[in-house]
From TrEMBL:
The keyword NADP applies. Belongs to the aldo/keto reductase family. SUPFAM superfamilies: NAD(P)-linked oxidoreductase. This is Aldo/keto reductase. Residues 33-274 form the NADP-dependent oxidoreductase domain. Keywords: NADP, Oxidoreductase.
Amino acid sequence: MPAISEERLTLNNGTSIPAVGVGCWMGVCGEGEQVTEMVKTALELGYRHVDTAANYGNEQSVGRALEESHVPRHDIFLTTKLDQSDHGRVEEAFALSLTKLGVDYVDLYLMHWPMAYDKSGNTLQPEESPTFIETWREMEKLVADGRARTIGVSNFSIKTLTELLAHTSIVPAINQVELHPCLPQHELLNFCSERGILLTAYSPVGKAKFADDPSITSIAAAHGRGVTNAQVLLSWGVQRGTAVIPKTVHAERLKENIQLVQLSAAEMETLDRFHQKPGMHRSVCGFHSAEFGGSCWGWTYEQLGWAMAMGGFHL
Ligand SMILES: NC(=O)c1ccc[n+]([C@@H]2O[C@H](COP(=O)([O-])OP(=O)(O)OC[C@H]3O[C@@H](n4cnc5c(N)ncnc54)[C@H](OP(=O)(O)O)[C@@H]3O)[C@@H](O)[C@H]2O)c1
C-alpha cells in the first residue's frame, strides 16, 4: 500500500496547505452527526485539511469534530466559504462562520461563487453592486486583522480572475474549481500557476462517476494489488500541482484517499488527455451542463468566462 500523503503545497503568502483534504459537502445542506464523524475519522487517519462552506449548513458539526479531536487547532488547515447571499455583508457572515466553527481564525476564506444574490435571493448582474471586486475588498480586511490567514476564490475563470486581479491588493491564494480528468481545465491551471494562485480540485474523484473507465482501471492495476481508481485520480491531481478535497463518509475510503501513488509521465499524459475521449469532456456536478440551461446561478457561461456551450464543451 502507498504511504499516507504528507505533501504540502506552498501558497503565495509563504504558508502551505496539505495537498489532500476532506471535503464536507454531504450532498444535502444541514448540520448532522455524519459530517462530525467523517471529520473526526479523517483527523484520526492523518488528514490535516478540512473544507467546508457556510452554504453547506454544517459549520457547527464540523466545528464539533475539531473540538472533539485531539489534533491541535494550529495543525489543521481549515477552509470555509462566503455564500452568494452574503456578498453585501462579509464581516457579519465571516464572524458567524467563526462562531459556528468554534474557532478564532480560519486558514482560508473563499468567495464561493463570483455572483452575489440580493436580499430576495435574486442574482445580481456582474456590474451590479456588490460586484465581486467590492466583495473581495471586504475580504481583504479579514486578512489585515488575522482572522483569515489567507483568502481566495472559487468557481472563478480566466476571465473573472483577470478582472479581479486588475483591482486587488491581495492576489487570491487559491481558486477552488471542479477538476478531474473529464474536466482538467489545463488553461486555467497554467494561468493560475503563472500568477501564484493554487488550484484546489473539487469533485476530484469525479463523484465516482467515471472512475471505472478501463484506462483508469489499467493504471491502477499497474501499481499493484490494492491500488484503487480513486487513488489514481487523486494522485494525478496532486502530481499536477493541485490540492484535492475528496469527500467520503466511509472510513476505508478516507484511508484510501490519503494514500497516493507516483504516476509515470506516460500515465499522467493518459489522464491529461482523458477528456478528449468522445463524450468525456464534461462536468460531473452539472454546473457546466444542459441541465443548467447555458447559465449557472443566474450568470451566463459568457459572464462566468466558461469556454463551453450548453450541453458540451469547446475543446
Ligand atoms: N467550491 C465549490 O463550489 C464546490 C463544489 C462541489 C464540491 N466542493 C467541495 O469538494 C468536495 C468534494 O467534491 P464532491 O463531494 O462533489 O465530489 P468527490 O469528492 O469527487 O466525490 C464524492 C463521491 O465519491 C464517493 N467516493 C469518495 N471517495 C471514494 C473512493 N475512494 N471510492 C469510491 N467512491 C468514493 C463518495 O461516496 P461515499 O461518501 O458514499 O463514500 C461521494 O459519493 C466537497 O465535499 C466540497 O467540500 C466545492
